Structures are given as structure tokens and as C-alpha cells.
Amino acid sequence: MSRQIFAAIVSGAYPEGSILPNEEALSHELGVSRTALRESVKGLVAKGILETKRRRGTLVLPRTLWNVFDADVIAWLRRANGHSVTSELLGTLAVALPGAAEMAAAHRAAKNLAQTALHAGDSSVEARARFLVELGAATSNAFVASLVATTVRSLLADAAPELDAWSGWLTPSRAQRLTGLVNAGDPTAAARIARHDAALEPASV
Q1: Rounded distance, CA 153 to CA 149, Å?
Q2: Is-contact 116 93, C-beta < 8 A?
Q3: CATH topology classification for 2-65
């Protein structure tokens, strides 16, 4: 039910900023009871997609307010446009990783990075994904860690070939170099080598 309403929002049937039909009309349109509809609306409110306003109705909020890292929301968005979601998630990693490496180096939190399979020479996409999750955790910032982990796990689950191709720059030797820079407490160099395009820079190899 929540997915049906969300799909209607994404399709433009209920655009951002619009008011949903009243409870009676919407429950009839979807062929469900009012009780079931209320529960679905509550779920979408909790995900930042809808807002209920007294005397006004249920408002579709701007996409910038949606909890897009909620697992359900990612899955629903992927149903609507999987290629776009994958591209945006990869773009999120490209932006987040240098900052995560910089923060990890500031804490010199390299212990778990050094224990990953990638650091030991396993170049599989699963090993690279685990290293990235550990890099996020090494920031000691719960928000950054959650952002990186949620993004990586979603890509690994639903777009592993794309994640594999995108993360090819993160070789075992680069992971070892990055771990060393984090351990040495060199935020600037760690951030530089954690850039997605760092593999294009001979000085960083």
C-alpha cells in the first residue's frame, strides 16, 4: 500500500507540494480500507514523504525532505528508475569517501581497515565494499558511517556489477596505502587517495 502511494507520487499523479485526495476518496481509489490507508500514510509520514496538516489534508513533501536512505525508499525509487538511483548512489560515494578518509586519518583509526580482506589482497567487489564500510566507521561519526554503509550495501545488493566497475580503482595496494595514511594521521593525503578519480593521478599510486 505504501509503495502504491509512493509510486503515484513519483509518477507525478500526486506531485510534490500537492494534497492527497481525502481519506474516503483515496481508500476507494486504492481499493483498501480506511484503516489500512491510515497505517500506510503514517509510514510515509515517518519516512519524510508526507505530512498531515489539520484542516488541510495530507501534503506531499519536497523530495529534498524525504528520507532517501531508508531501505524501503531506496527500493521504491529503484523500481521507478533503477539506473538513476544507482548513478546517484555512486555519486554519493564519490563525494563522501574523501571526507571519510580525512576524518578517519584525524582519528588515526586504521585498525579495522588493516584487518579487511581487501587490505590482505582480496580484490573482489565484496572485499572492496567491506573496506568502504569500515572506512565510514573509522570516522567515529555515526551519520557519516551510516551514509557510507547504507549506500554501499544498497549498491552491493542491487547493483553489484556497477559497484564493481566503479570501485575498480580501489585495489589492494591502494587500500594498503590509504590504511597507512590513516594510521599516520595524514588527513590531506588520505582524502586525496580516497578520491574516485585518484587512480588517474600517477603521484597518488
Answers
A1: 6
A2: no
A3: Arc Repressor Mutant, subunit A (1.10.10)
**How far apart are the C-alpha atoms of 182 and 18, rounded to whole Å?**
48
Identify the segments of the chain with pLDDT beneath 70.
198-205
Q: Record the cell numbers describing residue 123, joined without a space.
A: 580484490
Mean residue pLDDT of the chain comes to: 92
Residue 118: in which H helix or E strand, if any? none
CA 173 to chain centre: 26
Task: Enumerate the β-bridge partners of residue 60.
Answer: 50
- Cα–Cα distance measured from residue 193 to residue 184, given in angstroms and rounded to the nearest whole number: 14
3-state secondary structure of 58: strand
Q: Which three cell numbers stand for residue 110?
A: 586504521
Q: What is the pLDDT of residue 130?
A: 97
Helices and strands in the chain: count of H runs, count of E runs: 10, 2
pTM for the model: 0.86
50, 61 in Cβ contact below 8 A? yes
Domain-wise residue ranges, the chain: 2-65, 71-204
